[in-house]
Amino acid sequence: MSDEPLKQDAPRGALKRALDSDILHSFLRSKITVIAAVITALYFIGALFAPWIAPHDPFDLAGISILDARVPPLWMDGSDPRFLLGTDDQGRDVFSAILYGSRISLAVGFLSVILAAIVGVLLGLVAGYVGGRTDAIIMRIAEVQLTFPAILIALLIDGAARGVFGNLDREKYVFWILVFSIALSLWVQYARTVRGSTLVEKNKEYVQAARLIGIPPFLIMIRHVLPNVIGPVLVIATINLAIAIVTEATLSFLGVGVPPTQPSLGTLIRIGNDFLFSGEWWIAIFPGVALALLVLAVNLLGDWLRDALNPKLR
């Protein structure tokens, strides 16, 4: 008998199980979650394909004219058909700047969450599995870390970077400074959550069996314990993505984020804040609305994912 039909039926069976799963049913049943997912997907598509979707390149100094500065949105008097949401003080198209700014904000958010998750999960696994003095040291460091707000940590790291690199060289590394500083403030949640789950999992029979057959502790943690404690990490990562985006926007608004020549959403809001009370409200309001909508959509997805993966609520 040929194995070809079995190979063809395998993807169909996996697809059918996915379509019949409780998580998908819970997702489709919640209209708010579906709307949040669509909004989030639109942001990702807009950020990923910004060079092709944006009508103008806000980073191209040759294509920007100061004569186009402070042009109002399309539906107001004195508008220009080339600029849907108007322009800022440098003549950049606000709509295009939002697309490119979302790209930077999402990139900082994603990379900082990934870095925080890697560090936090590894430290949580080691603390929970090894225990003893190692566990005590890691948890004391985590408790000290919790006493420092994320903004303060980022400001301290930024100040140290200015002292090491100087203001000019700092702009070359400011993206990675933001990623590192935000990740440094987020790893504790992953470590504490994974440590608690690891303390439960390490006493189960499959871990004891792995020890008996001589599997090294590191491989036991990665191959056997990690897959069983990763569920809460996905929820934390989704919620922390919104926190990371807001933190980056706050730092950029305070002037320690990305430079105005390559603005994120926070930088656009800071630039527009200088003109908010002089009548050019669109320079700050539209990036602010874009940031709020993105954070709200990601938070709603995180709340749904937390409830969907909670067996007590099924």
UniProtKB/TrEMBL annotation:
<dbReference type="InterPro" id="IPR000515">
    <property type="entry name" value="MetI-like"/>
</dbReference>
<comment type="similarity">
    <text>Belongs to the binding-protein-dependent transport system permease family.</text>
</comment>
<feature type="transmembrane region" description="Helical">
    <location>
        <begin position="142"/>
        <end position="161"/>
    </location>
</feature>
<feature type="transmembrane region" description="Helical">
    <location>
        <begin position="104"/>
        <end position="130"/>
    </location>
</feature>
<dbReference type="InterPro" id="IPR025966">
    <property type="entry name" value="OppC_N"/>
</dbReference>
<feature type="transmembrane region" description="Helical">
    <location>
        <begin position="32"/>
        <end position="54"/>
    </location>
</feature>
<dbReference type="InterPro" id="IPR050366">
    <property type="entry name" value="BP-dependent_transpt_permease"/>
</dbReference>
<keyword id="KW-0813">Transport</keyword>
<dbReference type="Pfam" id="PF00528">
    <property type="entry name" value="BPD_transp_1"/>
</dbReference>
<dbReference type="GO" id="GO:0055085">
    <property type="term" value="P:transmembrane transport"/>
</dbReference>
<protein>
    <submittedName>
        <fullName>ABC transporter permease subunit</fullName>
    </submittedName>
</protein>
<feature type="transmembrane region" description="Helical">
    <location>
        <begin position="225"/>
        <end position="246"/>
    </location>
</feature>
<dbReference type="InterPro" id="IPR035906">
    <property type="entry name" value="MetI-like_sf"/>
</dbReference>
<dbReference type="Pfam" id="PF12911">
    <property type="entry name" value="OppC_N"/>
</dbReference>
<feature type="domain" description="ABC transmembrane type-1">
    <location>
        <begin position="102"/>
        <end position="302"/>
    </location>
</feature>
<keyword id="KW-1133">Transmembrane helix</keyword>
<keyword id="KW-1003">Cell membrane</keyword>
<feature type="transmembrane region" description="Helical">
    <location>
        <begin position="173"/>
        <end position="190"/>
    </location>
</feature>
<feature type="transmembrane region" description="Helical">
    <location>
        <begin position="281"/>
        <end position="305"/>
    </location>
</feature>
<keyword id="KW-0472">Membrane</keyword>
<dbReference type="GO" id="GO:0005886">
    <property type="term" value="C:plasma membrane"/>
</dbReference>
<keyword id="KW-0812">Transmembrane</keyword>
